[in-house]
């Protein structure tokens, strides 16, 4: 244990060692990160300024967009910068902070997606009681609970990792600091901690996924009493959420619901849920939602009129 503080920084091996590939990835991820910021900010501004989008569904969607920006910002800027430098380093404290923030925003997003499924379930299964059940106070409490749950989860992950002794080597075969790659570098037996990590992360992902599945089973059963037009409208709204859930939960379950081992495909799968999914979310929720598209058009037309005057 006296060698515990030997490692003051970690070396990230990154996505690729090939300089040509790194330059291509730099341009690609720079564009994608710009789309993440612009697309999700556009959704937040549109929802906040549109009176027609004053409903629980869009209230949760605005927070989902904020989480997408925050979650991708934990890793994307560092990844983009590291693609242009030779030696990719991160201080020990910065590594733990990145681990904490990544799990904080990621777990909060998982809880929020589960809350959004519950919201749709109530809206379709009990439409007459929807406004009473999902009032502003309840919506605020659900969002707060998601943030608190994400914080507790990430705090546990960080505390389990930070107390490990790191004597060297200090090379992380990843483009950001995460629990599994760090456990491989610890100079002690990490079996118990790896079980706790998998239990913590895996159970959250699995439990939320089961709740989501049950919610949509109830939704499918309830839709049998709807008219064809009402059924299509409800399915259009729910399909957007289902797509986002599959894109986000699939990679997370693959990464965190297994023993503390790493595979060569982990880095590309991590790119999918840290960058690709936050890019796709604004497109999914705007292209498949007429109310959001109309609100964006009105927002744009108002800005055009102001610029003309």
Automatic annotation (TrEMBL):
- Keyword Membrane part of the UniProt annotation: yes
Q: What membrane topology was assigned to this protein in its record?
A: Multi-pass membrane protein
Question: Keyword Cytoplasm, does the record have it?
Answer: no
Compartments reported by the entry: Cell membrane
Q: Where is the G-protein coupled receptors family 1 profile domain?
A: 39-285
Keyword annotations of the record: Cell membrane, G-protein coupled receptor, Membrane, Olfaction, Receptor, Sensory transduction, Transducer, Transmembrane, Transmembrane helix
Q: Which residues cross the membrane?
A: 20-45, 57-76, 96-118, 138-160, 203-223, 235-256, 268-287
The molecular function terms in GO held by this entry are: G protein-coupled receptor activity; olfactory receptor activity
Q: Which GO terms describe its cellular component?
A: plasma membrane
Q: Name one Pfam family in it.
A: 7tm_4
What family does the Swiss-Prot or TrEMBL record give for this protein?
A: Belongs to the G-protein coupled receptor 1 family.
Give the protein's recorded name.
Olfactory receptor
Which organism does this sequence originate in?
Aythya fuligula
Its ancestry begins with:
Eukaryota, Metazoa, Chordata, Craniata, Vertebrata
């Amino acid at each position: 244990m006296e060698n515990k503080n030997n490692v003051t920084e970690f070396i990230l091996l990154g996505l690729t060692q090939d300089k040509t590939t790194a330059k291509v990835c730099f341009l690609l991820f720079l564009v994608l990160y710009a789309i993440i910021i612009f697309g999700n900010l556009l959704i937040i501004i549109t929802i906040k300024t549109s009176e027609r989008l004053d409903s629980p569904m869009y209230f949760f969607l605005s927070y989902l967009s904020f989480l997408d920006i925050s979650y991708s910002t934990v890793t994307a800027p560092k990844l983009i910068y590291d693609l242009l430098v030779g030696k990719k380093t991160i201080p020990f404290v910065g590594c733990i902070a990145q681990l904490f923030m990544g799990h904080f925003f990621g777990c909060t997003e998982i809880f929020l997606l589960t809350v959004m499924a519950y919201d749709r379930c109530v809206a379709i299964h009990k439409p007459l009681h929807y406004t009473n059940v999902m009032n502003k106070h309840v919506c605020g409490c659900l969002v707060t609970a998601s943030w608190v749950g994400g914080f507790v989860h990430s705090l546990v992950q960080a505390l389990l990792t930070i107390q490990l002794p790191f004597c060297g080597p200090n090379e992380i075969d990843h483009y950001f600091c995460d629990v599994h790659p760090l456990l491989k570098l610890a100079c002690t037996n990490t079996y118990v901690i790896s079980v706790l990590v998998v239990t913590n992360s895996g159970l959250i992902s699995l439990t939320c996924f089961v709740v989501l599945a049950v919610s949509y089973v109830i939704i499918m059963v309830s839709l049998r009493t709807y008219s064809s037009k009402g059924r299509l409208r409800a399915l259009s709204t729910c399909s957007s959420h289902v797509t986002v859930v599959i894109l986000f939960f699939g990679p997370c379950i693959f990464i965190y619901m297994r023993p503390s081992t790493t595979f060569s495909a982990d880095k590309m799968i991590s790119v999918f849920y840290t960058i690709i999914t936050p890019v796709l979310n604004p497109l999914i929720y705007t292209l498949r939602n007429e109310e959001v598209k109309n609100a964006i058009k009105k927002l744009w037309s108002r800005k055009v009129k102001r610029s003309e005057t």
